[in-house]
Amino acid sequence: PAQTNREPHRPQYHFSPKTNWMNDPNGMVYLNGTYHLFFQYHPNGTTWGPMHWGHATSKDMVHWQEQPIALYPDSLGTIFSGSAVVDVNNTSGFGKNGQTPLVAIFTHHNPELEKKKTGTHQYQSLAYSLDEGKTWTKYAGNPVVPNPGIVDFRDPKVRWYEPQKKWIMTLATKDRITFYSSPNLKNWAKESEFGQNVGAHGGVWECPDLFPLTHNGKQAWVLLVSINPGGPNGGSATQYFVGDFDGKTFKPYSTQTKWMDYGTDNYAGVTFANTGNRTVLMGWMSNWQYAQVVPTSAWRSATTVPRELGLTEVNKELYLTSAPVKELDALNGKTIRLNNISVKGQYDLTAKTGGPSGLFKLTLSAAATQDFAIVLANEQGNELVLGYDKAANQYYIDRSKAGKTAFEKGFGKRHTAPRLSTDGSVSLTLLADVASVELFADNGLTVMTDIFFPETDMKKVFIKSGTGVSIRTLQYTPLTPSVDAG
Ligand code: FRU
User: Fold this and answer.
1) In CATH, which superfamily holds the domain spanning 20-326?
2) What pLDDT does 3 receive?
3) What mean pLDDT do residues 311-332 have?
4) Which one of 20, 21, 22, 23 would you pick to mutate in the ligand 1 pocket, going by the greatest count of ligand atoms within 8 A of its CB?
């Protein structure tokens, strides 16, 4: 589709709601050939407000259609974050005449109780759909997990635990995770707590996820925990632990603090349910530090691209890796390949790529011996700089001169991430959309996602190196929009 007259800063291949405020992705699930994305949504404004679950569907996680709102606030409260499961065995009994229910497990947030400061205003509830998420019925027995007296008690992520044929709920409970189990999604028993004395605690724990991944034929469990604030570059961010889970207790292999994404703009990410052996995550591509004041008009926020998660080992530590899903290749234009280019000073890639495109994928590899940077620029002199700093052994994204920054004092900064890989060669995959960059370094071992707001599209790309760098391979692929013109 032609992209003339589109709204400033509207992402062209990331999901963003047509109008109004969005935060966390919720209830992501694959069902009968369709991916469902629900999301924290305020339909009456472009800042956070009484929460609903918005809804979008996709056949490929890349082209999304926004659907009518799925869940509205009710007498028990507004609808905070949570998950959805396909209840294949109809353990809940919500299925009628052999139907398989789709069950949403979410937090009810009760503003009336909140005002009374009882500290019990968040509790977990159910809703189910028998028509693939089009219409929903709230369970009459809500809430299913009442509040035990913990102010922050939310964001249930539920999965089936096959070895013990039970559901496991991973719940954020202030400064720790509490695990519950249930045979039927309705009756929950507490199993254990994790995290009070481990991990980052610069803010409240939110939006957890627990899932197994296989590494060298061995299964390990990953526990994601979003925290706000306390992220490595300020504001909200997502840490993770790798360990064992036995249906009752999570035991981390190591106490090292690890971050899924060192950029400032991948928060509250969780994985899709019912995707078989694939583990695919999308996050909210913003940060509580400034999400409500970013300079977009009709809407606020987008999701990250879907990312396939894996594990890799470096110096006996297991780390999470993230890679853009292969479905994104549907957006690929014609790839330009350049080999063995040496850059000293500035190399204008735009001149080589057959015309400018603000939307692209760039993959390159270079010896890990010299500093270099990729610069996105426009006619106005806005510059977004991403690079590798050899001496610090870091990657960085500097958005301090990338356009509008004045809306929040902490926005226009340089962000850094440790290079964890010990490979002699640096390899980068960079996805650029109108208002975001997603950097996957060393096969997704170090990831950085940052948003930015240039005055006009960043259609120029340069490689820069003061010391000189030899780029071994470089591939530039323009990407086509996946969203309709606004
Ligand atoms: C995380 C979060 C969740 C909560 C939701 C409310 O961004 O604070 O903990 O359920 O947003 O919109």
Assistant:
1) Glycosyl hydrolase domain; family 43 (2.115.10.20)
2) 52
3) 98
4) 23
